[in-house]
Amino acid sequence: MRTIIFDMDGTLVNSGTSITNTVNYVRENLGFEKMEKNYILEKVNDPTINTAKFFYGTESITQQQKELFENHYKETCLEDLELYEGVFELIDDLSSEFVLTVATNANSNFAKKMLSHLEIEKYFKTIVGYDSVKKPKPNPEMINKILDKHNIEKENAQLVGDSHKDIIAAKNAGVDWVLVNWGFSNYKKDAIQNIKELEERIYNKFK
C-alpha cells in the first residue's frame, strides 16, 4: 500500500484570500494595523519565526486569538476558494493507485468543508488537521498518524507541500517529499513548477 500525503492550503487549494482576511480580522480586533496579503502568505508558513508573536504580539496563540480566528474563518473559508489548475485531474488519476491523504495545519473540520465544497473530499481516506494532533507541522506527528492508521511503511509514502514546514515535517518523519512552487511561497530552485512535473515525480518514485 502506498500513500501520497498532501498539504492543503497553497498545495491543493488557493485559500489566500480567506487566510489573509482572517489574520487581519484578528489583528484589527487586537488593535494592530492590517498587513499586506502577500506578506502574510509569505510569513504564515515560515518555520523560522514565532507566528503568534509575529502576527499577534504574544509568545503563543491565546484562547481569544484562537476563537477570533476560527469564528471568522468558519464564515469566510470558502471566500475566493479554488483548486489550483490541474489538481482535480491529478487527484482523480492518483486515486486509483494510491491512498490519498491530507495533512494540514488548518482545522480538520474547516479542511473537510473546503475540500467538500471543491468536490474532492471524497478522494481522501484521511484528513488530519492541527486539532487532530498535539503538535502540527513541522512536527512529524501528522504524517506518523497517517502512516500508522493505514499501516504504511515510510518508504511507501510521499508528502507534497508548498512550504518549508511541510518539508521539515517530511524529513522528520523519514518520508520522501516534493516541494511545489504554485502556492504561498516562491522558490527559485528545487521546486516543482507545474502539475505535470508533480505527476511525473510521483510516478517516478513508485515505478
List the main descriptive attributes of the protein structure presented here.
HAD_sf; HAD-SF_hydro_IA; 2 domains; Rossmann fold; 44% helix; 207 residues; alpha/beta; EC 3.1.3.18; phosphoglycolate phosphatase; PGP-like_dom2
Task: Kindly describe this structure.
With 207 residues, the chain is an alpha/beta fold. It has two domains: 3-14 and 81-206, Rossmann fold (3-Layer(aba) Sandwich); 16-76, DNA polymerase, domain 1, CATH 1.10.150. It has helices at 16-29, 37-43, 51-56, 63-76, 87-94, 108-117, 141-150, 164-173, 195-206, and strands at residues 3-6, 13-14, 82-83, 99-103, 126-128, 157-161, 176-179. It has a five-stranded parallel sheet, with helices on both faces. Strands 2-3 form a two-stranded antiparallel sheet. The protein is globular, with a radius of gyration of 16 Å. The model has no long low-confidence stretch (mean pLDDT 96).
Map the helices and strands.
Blueprint: E1 3-6, E2 13-14, H1 16-29, H2 37-43, H3 51-56, H4 63-76, E3 82-83, H5 87-94, E4 99-103, H6 108-117, E5 126-128, H7 141-150, E6 157-161, H8 164-173, E7 176-179, H9 195-206
Parallel strand pairs: 1-4, 1-6, 4-5, 6-7
Antiparallel strand pairs: 2-3
Helix pairs in contact: 1-2, 1-4
Family: Belongs to the HAD-like hydrolase superfamily. CbbY/CbbZ/Gph/YieH family.
Enzyme class: hydrolase
Pathway: Organic acid metabolism; glycolate biosynthesis; glycolate from 2-phosphoglycolate: step 1/1
